[in-house]
Amino acid sequence: MDLQGDLINHPHDAYRHLRDTAPVQRIAGPTGEPAWLVTRYDDVRSALADPRLSLDKTNAAEGSYRGLALPPALDANLLNMDPPDHTRMRKLVSRAFTPRRVDALRAPIRRTADGLLDVLGAEGRTDLIAAYTAPLPITVICDLLGIPDGHRTDFRAWTNELIAPDPSRPQAAKHAIGAMLAFFTELIAHKRRHPADDLLSDLIEVRDSDGDRLSEDELTSLAFLMLGAGYENTVQLIGNAVHALLSHPEHLARLRTDPSKLPEAVEELARYEGPALLAIRRFPTEDVAIGDVTIPAGETVLLSLSAANRDPARFSHPELLDVDRDASGHLALGHGIHYCLGAPLARAEVEIALAALLERFSSLTLAEPAPRWRPSLRARGLLELPVEYKAAARPRA
């Protein structure tokens, strides 16, 4: 078994093999350094909530996989922090993602979705990633942060370079990091001169009025993380969900018949083909036993959310999509204190995106049978989603 190649090209098959034979396995991480990969649901869920598994890179042993190499102004974010810094930072932004605030965003999200579908017309063929599932979340998160329209076009290219780097272009990721740092530095300076009613302006005010609550590097890193996570994860959630339903037309028909099932279906779709193959890397602060393996302090631990979500010990027939399944307890959005901060917003976007598609198109089918997945150990997402569509007949006034 070519473990590294299979984890990229056939992740579900590779994870199934590891769950059965080596649920805590030494592997080469995304950039080649050693790491421990954990694949069983109970082990992954427990480890996600274990305070001995630190996200702080200063706890990493020499030579272990440490994750993306970022400058300090982008690295001081929630994905590299433990309490109390994590608690302080999360509290500053959590109010923007409460269910109540997200409910207020549902109507604008639907207007954005309808506007994107209007552009497609009544009938034709398109790449749904480029036309719909990518521009929808980037519009939503940029509106929330207050990022002007003209600054949104390069972000997908930059994140692609980080999530799925091209080995033939070793400098591309470094260039993307530099471009993003310059972008956020300039954006924050602009917002300082021209504050508005948006989340980034609010955070700048916190930083400038009380530097003890938020440093400049933390401010820049927060903006980077919220834009990146709010865009990247949701693009894959929506795209993977649409592909799964088009690949299982009986479930697509089920949701057409009963759209009230959509919220439950979103949970199952996230379980079945979530965007994050792995949780953010962790470093034990002491020797930690996971399963039958004792992992030394400082060595890197990678927790496979995707493998856990298809563990038959937790979910019956997990390889099957079932929109009537009770998928509660899935780990697609994490678990514990690092549970996805934007989960309420991501769920709302997926539900609204699917509802708009189902209402708009009476016929929506895959134009090509075999999808092209982005080659990445970090994230599961489609490079493109070619579809053919035909609009539903509009009722006469």
Overview of this protein structure:
The protein is mainly α and 397 residues long. It has 16 helices and 10 strands. It has helices at 3-9, 11-21, 41-48, 72-75, 85-94, 99-120, 128-133, 135-145, 155-163, 172-193, 199-209, 216-247, 249-257, 262-272, 305-309, 343-360, and strands at 24-28, 34-38, 53-54, 123-127, 283-284, 288-290, 293-295, 301-303, 361-366, 386-391. Strands 1-2-8 form a 3-stranded mixed beta sheet, covered by helices on one side. A 3-stranded antiparallel beta sheet has the order 4-10-9. Helix 8 (135-145) runs antiparallel to helix 12 (216-247). The mean pLDDT is 91.
Gap between N and C termini, in Å?
A: 61 Å
Q: Give the low-pLDDT segments.
A: none
Count of helical stretches: 16
Question: Would you count the extended β strands for me?
Answer: 10
What form results from the Cα inertia axes? Answer: globular
Mean pLDDT across all amino acids: 91
Radius of gyration: 21 Å
State which percent range the strand residues make up.
5-15%
Oligomer: single chain
* Structural class by secondary-structure content: mainly alpha
Strand order of the largest sheet: 1-2-8
Indicate the percent of residues in helices: 40-55%
Reported for the largest beta sheet, the result is: 3 strands, mixed
Secondary-structure element pattern, one letter each:
HHEEHEHHHEHHHHHHHHEEEEHHEE
In short:
With 397 residues, the chain is mainly α.
What would the keywords be for this entry?
397 residues, mainly alpha, three-stranded mixed β-sheet, three-stranded antiparallel β-sheet, 49% helix, globular
